[in-house]
Design a protein that fits this description.
Layout (H helix, E strand, L loop, with lengths): L9 E8 L1 H11 L20 E4 L5 H10 L15 E8 L1 H7 L2 H19 L5 E7 L5 H7 L7 E6 L2 E6 L13 E6 L1
Antiparallel strand pairs: 1-3, 2-4, 3-5, 4-5, 6-7
């Protein structure tokens, strides 16, 4: 609708985030802020946002817990490394408006979440997955004379690389230095 050509467009963005940036991402995605620069967020609709995976704690706390539990290892990565990733799945508002709105968007993003699990290597690496249903599409709303909302999905995850650690002469114990570990990429 924004382009006026009737063509539906899909966008999937993969952003890399450092520990310094993840707090702002969490506040936006989980709607923890008191006010937003984006004036199209309608706080009264935040309850309509859908968590396909709700965070069990803050993103940084979850990362630390995964490390403590041995799910991931940060051995050898730099302090300023990209420890988090965020997939944002986005389709133009007209597509959902023309196909059933909110309920259609929920089903569409359920399937997108399943794809995200495969992309990141499994649900165990996903910290949060939330479909925003509380952002108004101003241009479409004004053109149609009714509120139209822009549905999109945020998936925050830990990017991991499977590494096989082989025994070398530098290792003191063959048993502790063999096997696979998962490190944030």
């Amino acid at each position: 609708m924004a382009r006026g050509d009737g063509i539906d467009r899909t966008n999937a963005r993969n952003m890399r985030l450092t520990a310094a940036k993840i707090g702002n991402t969490q506040q936006h995605n989980e709607r923890e802020k008191d006010s937003y620069v984006n004036q199209d967020i309608v706080p009264e609709r935040t309850s309509l946002n859908v968590h396909f995976k709700a965070p069990s704690a803050g993103y940084q706390e979850m990362f630390s817990q995964m490390e403590a539990n041995g799910v991931i290892s940060t051995r050898g990565i730099k302090a300023d490394a990209f420890r988090y990733g965020e997939l944002v799945f986005d389709v133009n508002s007209a597509y959902f408006y023309n196909h059933g709105g909110y309920d259609f968007a929920k089903q569409f993003y359920t399937d997108a979440y399943k794809a995200a699990m495969k992309i990141v290597g499994g649900e165990q690496y996903i910290l949060s997955a939330v479909m925003h249903a509380d952002e108004r599409n101003r241009a479409m709303s004004e053109a149609l004379g009714e509120d139209v909302y822009h549905y999109h999905l945020h998936v925050v995850y830990i990017p991991v690389v499977e590494k096989e650690i082989r025994w070398t002469k530098r290792c003191k114990d063959k048993r502790s230095s063999s096997g696979n570990t998962r490190t944030p990429s």
